[in-house]
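seq:
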Amino acid sequence: MLEEALAEIRSAPDARALQQVRVAWLGRKGRVTERLKTLGGLAPEERRAAGAEINALKQALEQAFEPSSRRSSRRSMSVSTSSKRPPSRPSSSANASTSRSLACGPPPAPTTCSRR
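struct:
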């Protein structure tokens, strides 16, 4: 099964085709997911062995898709003529307490309450 999936990954001509292959293998209705659903009907010993085999397949496919998707996206990005956006600023809420304390000065001194 792994060799079949790897052959499909290698033959994907672009990022869109690669995404379709990824969904066909790892998606909610993908081949690996369908195999995982069959584990419930197996005996505990068989389930353990089959589960380990399916998980190894899934991990191998995830690793195989990772570098391929980066290569494809790099290829499509280098061809793209879209303008680049400047980096975003950190959210103002992240530094709100720091900036507020610096803008307003030190906190007021604690007052003592004298009781009569």
